[in-house]
Design brief:
The complex is a heterodimer of chains A (182) and B (553). Chain A is of the alpha/beta class and 182 residues long. Helices cover 15% and strands 20% of the residues of chain A. Chain A has four helices and eight strands, in the order ββββαββαβαβα. Chain A has an eight-stranded mixed sheet with strand order 2-1-8-7-6-5-4-3. In chain A, a hairpin with a 2-residue loop joins strand 1 and strand 2. Chain B is an alpha+beta fold and 553 residues long. Chain B has four domains: 104 residues, Alpha-Beta Complex (Sulfite Reductase Hemoprotein, domain 2), CATH 3.90.480; 157 residues, 2-Layer Sandwich (Sulfite Reductase Hemoprotein, domain 1); 98 residues, Sulfite Reductase Hemoprotein, domain 2; 135 residues, Sulfite Reductase Hemoprotein, domain 1 (2-Layer Sandwich). Chain B is 37% helix and 18% strand. In chain B, the strands form four sheets. In chain B, strands 16, 17, 18, 19, 20 and 21 form a six-stranded mixed sheet that branches. In chain B, strands 1-2-5-4-13 form a five-stranded antiparallel sheet. In chain B, strands 3-14-15-12-11 form a five-stranded antiparallel sheet. In chain B, helix 3 packs antiparallel against helix 12 and helix 6 crosses helix 8. Classes of the chains: A alpha/beta (182), B alpha+beta (553).
Chain lengths: 182, 553
């Protein structure tokens, strides 16, 4: 699919998020993508923990090596998990953008990062996903949910336990039900 | 049939509770229309022209009498006392109240039913052959695989927000009665020696861009079914177009990449997961098959039951006709399958009243081990009827309005709800069906015409399967007026083909006359017992076109 000419909606930086089932302060700052043709100014990168767009991370991996523990990466919805690939094991955080809740590519990306590329760090959903997707996200390996805008996170996190069991495998359940019935 | 255990029940009850919460949030204004839309759709709830429409899943069409009675009760208590069988072997209610839906779902959950994934951009109800388990040409019973697919696809966490809806059909017989070539994935059960496996087809579909599916795997071992499906849907989820809803189905991706390249990507993905936990175990396969064993058939001497039947048909033309058109051979001597026709003249095809639903339950209990099957042509099959009880069954079916002996004939039409109900429709379809039924109500003429599928869709979304009708009728909008395009030559069988447009469209009033011209021409042209579709395939579209559009001399 051709790259969109313009940048899609960029994820924000809410003050709080749901992390490992609890409302927690957001310690990471997500850096938006730059328009095609514009330069990315590495020296302007803020101190502390930052989440870089995939391309900026790829272009600057060596320069950023010293800040290893405070550099995360975010994938846009058309960027597949294989673009990080085995590099995932080195990362403390990967965020996946859902430009709209109906764009389900991030579910596959999450699963592949966990199941194929051995990612063990924080897997964060960012962008326009919604509460009612939390169980699906959780089953695809996500453990952090940075909702956009003002949201009642304390009640939202209840949706993580909408379902007590599942038919298929997921990152939370290595065995499909047909292997557990007997 | 498959029966829930505590695990299945827990999942469905969790869903009922979840949807109750979602509905409450919507009614309280906490969920926007846009946010509620995919949630209600994944529970089969549409907002239609006049009222919400709720689509209930009937996995591969199979119902027991308890479920039928509950469906009848729900239509009485929450609807206007009728329901509609769909071409995905499901059932729809046209008049429920939004605030009642959670209660309806709770009632259905009590009888192991739900509305999960009957709409939305997710994996829909898997469909199959209504004669599964009893057909003479069966290679293996498709239902255990359908049930395994149902479970695998239910709340699949990765595939709930696909680019577009996704439909899977499984055929277990030599003759394809599940229309697998017009599905996103078609699964054909085959045997290599004694080993069961699957031929896998992808990228078929109807809608705006009808496509016949392509084979991407000639033989998939039985235990690999789910992992292979997972690989296909995973490739589609990543690469399917999301910028244009009309180009978002898998058929467009398969066309764009080419079936070879698409298949190569699936195989590549599958190599990573084929030996994972979704690989079916022998234990799981045996377990799935254990729900679809033969009922306790009696032993009959086929010669004597045949004689008895012969005596009943002698001198009883009406019964003989019903026997010929509405019953189907059974692999067990002394039994036949029968089809209850939901298509007497004047009733929208597929519509049944609450008392008819109760009647189907009663007939199923009395004649067919308590089970019934919804068919993709919107009728109902009772699969296991003793030949000696056919006469009795026929009389009862007549009483309930199910014995119109028109199965497989012109008036056994597939027809979508159309502009009378559906907000997508360009034109009405039910009145067209009725006008055709009224014009062609002479049973002798219908029998003489023989096997003939006429399918009507009220818009190009093709819910009435007009692309694969021998005669297809498509409602179109011409400057705000309803017109109808006629197509010829479609088929959803093994030799699947897409119908071709005959020419300029007609007004609703003209349609029966045009169908009459087409049929007259067929009768003139046919050789011996040649069915309509064979005559069409022999002589082609052009002669029909010339006849229909000939200037009156």
């Amino acid at each position: 699919m051709p790259k969109p000419a313009k940048l899609g909606p960029q994820p924000g930086n809410p003050a709080e998020l749901i992390l490992n089932g609890e409302v927690s302060p957001n310690e990471w700052q997500l850096i938006p993508q730059v328009e095609a043709g514009e330069d990315f100014d590495l020296s302007a990168l803020p101190d502390g923990k930052v989440i870089l767009p995939l391309r900026q991370w790829k272009d600057n991996q060596e320069a950023l090596a010293a800040r290893h523990d405070e550099i995360g990466v975010w994938l846009d919805s058309e960027e597949g998990a294989e673009l990080i690939g085995d590099g995932a094991v080195e990362l403390p955080l990967i965020a996946i953008n859902f430009p709209a809740f109906a764009d389900g590519r991030g579910f596959t990306a999450g699963r592949l990062l966990r199941e194929r590329f051995g990612f063990k760090g924080e897997l964060r959903a960012v962008g326009g996903f919604m509460r009612d997707q939390l169980t699906y996200l959780q089953r695809c390996g996500f453990n952090a949910y940075a909702f956009e805008g003002e949201q009642p996170l304390v009640s939202l996190k209840d949706s993580l336990s909408d379902f007590g069991d599942s038919y298929q495998t997921g990152t939370d359940q290595p065995l499909p039900m047909f292997r557990r019935r007997f | 049939m498959y029966r829930y255990d505590d695990r299945d029940r827990a999942i469905i009850n969790d869903r009922v509770a979840q949807f109750r919460g979602q509905t409450e949030r919507y009614l309280a204004g906490e969920l926007s229309e846009e946010q509620f839309l995919p949630l209600r759709l994944q529970n089969g709830l549409y907002i239609q022209r006049l009222a919400p429409m709720l689509r209930i899943a009937v996995p591969y069409g199979l119902l027991n009498s308890t479920q039928l009675r509950r469906l009848a009760r729900v239509s009485r208590d929450y609807d206007k006392g009728y329901a509609h069988f769909t071409t995905r072997q499901n059932l729809q209610y046209n008049w429920p109240q939004l605030e009642d839906i959670p209660a309806i779902l709770a009632e259905l959950a009590e009888v192991e039913m739900h509305a999960v994934q009957t709409s939305g951009n997710c994996i829909r109800n898997t469909t199959s052959d209504p004669y599964a388990g009893i057909a003479l040409d069966e290679i293996a019973d498709p239902r255990p695989y359908c049930e395994l697919i149902r479970q695998w696809s239910t709340f699949h966490p990765e595939f709930a927000f696909l680019p577009r809806k996704f439909k899977i059909a499984v055929s277990g017989s030599e003759q394809d009665r599940a229309a697998i070539r017009v599905h996103d994935i078609g699964v054909q059960i085959i045997k290599r020696g004694e080993e069961i496996g699957f031929q896998v087809l992808v990228g078929g579909g109807q809608g705006r861009t009808p496509v016949i599916a392509e084979t991407i795997r000639d033989f998939l071992p039985e235990e690999d079914l789910l992992s292979y499906l997972e690989a296909i849907v995973r490739v589609y989820n990543q690469l399917g177009r999301r910028d244009n809803k009309y180009k978002a189905r898998i058929k467009i991706l398969v066309k764009a990449l080419g079936p070879e390249e698409f298949g190569r990507r699936v195989e590549e993905e599958w190599q990573h997961i084929k030996d994972g936990a979704e690989k079916l175990t022998q234990e799981a396969l045996q377990w799935a098959k254990s729900f679809f064993t033969s009922p306790e058939y009696k032993e009959f001497d086929s010669a004597s039951t045949q004689d008895a039947l012969q005596q009943q048909t002698d001198g009883n033309k009406a019964f003989a006709r019903w026997l010929e058109r509405n019953t189907y051979p059974h692999r067990v001597p002394g039994y036949r399958a029968i089809k209850l026709s939901t298509k007497p003249t004047g009733v929208p095809p597929g519509d049944v009243t609450d008392s008819q639903l109760d009647a189907i339950a009663e007939l199923a209990d009395n004649f067919s081990f308590g089970e019934a099957r919804v068919t993709h042509d919107q009728n109902v099959v009772l699969a296991d009827v003793e030949q000696g009880k056919l006469y009795d069954l026929w009389q009862q079916a007549r009483k309930y309005g199910f014995a119109t002996p028109n199965i497989g004939t012109l008036t056994d039409m597939i027809c979508c709800p159309g502009g009378d109900y559906c907000s997508l429709a360009n034109a009405k379809s039910i009145p067209v069906a009725e006008a055709i039924q009224r014009r062609f109500d002479d049973m002798d003429y219908l029998y003489d015409l023989g096997d003939l599928n006429l399918n009507i869709s009220g818009c190009m979304n093709a819910c009435g399967h007009h692309h694969v009708g021998h005669i297809g009728i498509l409602g179109v909008d011409k400057k705000g007026e309803e017109f109808y395009q006629i197509q010829l030559g479609g088929s959803a069988s093994n030799e699947a083909s897409l119908a071709k447009v005959l020419g300029p469209s007609f007004s609703r009033a003209e349609v029966p006359e045009v169908i009459g011209k087409i049929l007259d021409f067929y009768v003139e042209q046919r050789q011996a017992e040649e069915p309509f579709i064979d005559t069409y395939n022999r002589i082609g579209l052009q002669p029909f076109k010339e006849r229909v559009y000939a200037k009156a001399s």
